[in-house]
Design goal:
Blueprint lengths: L1 E6 L18 H23 L4 E6 L17 E3 L19 E7 L18 E6 L2 E2 L2 H10 L5 E7 H7 L7 E10 L2 E4 L2 H15 L14 E7 L2 H7 L6 E4 L2 E6 L2 H17 L7
Parallel strand pairs: 1-2, 1-4, 2-3, 4-7, 7-8
Antiparallel strand pairs: 5-6, 5-10, 8-9, 10-12, 11-12
């Protein structure tokens, strides 16, 4: 049994505001061990449950946040940027039995601690086939095309509720409760580690590959906080402006859908000016 952990940081234990997740910030250094603790707890739990291999894919910002030296020696980690499938890199090789979304969060325009979709701001909403989409929803459709179920999810309480819509059977652990976008009622790392480890052990029972899900075509729409960002996004072939601040495109698979999404958000981020957005 091989498990892939997709590890994001906004939904990690103790994280509540931008400085907690921005590489180089003092609070980021403080929060890295708590983020690593969440991921390591999942690793330990999966091995407790009988997993033979656990591969971690760093999925936050620079994708160089987890402390490798604090992880269980049995695990391996993909670290660094520019990967074929970004947040779920590693699922495409046909040997993964289950995926865990650790430290995930709600999407742009939703309530939730540090809610966003790919870009920390600028994107005010994302829809997949007219359904409001978080990163978790997008990535769940990607892994489904490889016949891999989402078996474990951790984040704030609202992110866990969001995950019910796209991974209803996955074991879920709320490491904090939403108060506002930048505030939460947080549990201690010792407590969340114990909860995550127990949930991961139980989740191994769900790690059974199924037939690949081909649910296309997929229409993805993005809304921005400024008109010029929508215009910038149309540089990507197939992306059309469908509103003053909104674009949309359609792909036959989520493999192509997520890669186009990455291209759009990369171009849009480069079009944001420091003061005026």
């Amino acid at each position: 049994m091989k498990i892939l952990i997709s590890a994001d940081m906004e939904g990690a234990t103790g994280v509540t505001w931008p400085g907690d997740v921005l590489p180089g910030a003092p609070q980021w250094e403080r929060c890295r061990p708590m983020f690593t603790s969440d991921v390591n707890a999942a690793v330990l739990g999966f091995y407790d449950g009988g997993a033979d291999e656990v591969l971690i894919n760093e999925a936050h910002w620079s994708m160089r946040n987890l402390l490798l030296e604090q992880l269980d020696d049995r695990a391996q980690m993909i670290t660094g940027r520019h990967k074929t499938l970004s947040m779920v890199e590693g699922v495409q090789h046909g040997d993964v039995d289950g995926v865990a979304f650790i430290g995930y969060h709600t999407g742009a325009g939703m309530e939730g601690v540090l809610a966003h979709t790919y870009l920390p701001n600028s994107v005010t909403g994302v829809w997949l086939n007219d359904v409001r989409a978080s990163e978790g929803l997008l990535n769940a459709h990607v892994v489904a095309e490889y016949g891999v179920p989402v078996v474990l999810f951790t984040g704030d309480d609202l992110a866990c509720e969001d995950a019910l819509g796209y991974a209803p059977e996955a074991r879920k652990v709320a490491v904090k409760d939403h108060v506002s976008r930048y505030a939460a009622v947080c549990r201690t790392p010792a407590r969340t580690a114990a909860d995550i480890r127990a949930a991961a052990k139980d989740a191994t029972r769900l790690a059974v590959r199924h037939e690949p899900v081909t649910g296309g075509p997929f229409t993805i729409a993005l809304e921005f906080d400024a008109e010029h960002l929508a215009l910038a996004a149309t540089v990507v072939p197939g992306v059309d402006q469908v509103g003053e601040r909104k674009v949309a495109y359609t792909e036959g698979t989520m493999y192509d859908g997520i890669r186009t999404f990455k291209a759009v958000t990369t171009i849009v981020s480069a079009a944001v000016e420091e003061q005026y957005g």
